[in-house]
Amino acid sequence: MDMFTVAMKIVSENELGKYKDFVLQHQGKCLMEMGKWDEAKQCFQEVLEIRKKKAVPSLIESTELSLNWLERKTEGG
Description:
mainly alpha
């Protein structure tokens, strides 16, 4: 997970904020694969807020799919 900390630092230090959602989305996916459901959900919720501001339907849909999968997984479905 250190790689995501480094990626976020690069994004912040180089005024690359437009990539923050990309980094967080992939961090969330990695957390999902590790079974860290709550942490993954937090990432995706932050990503969704950013992507709604960007107003790019395909990006919003991608994040919503991840959140929906997590919901099903954590509800035992």
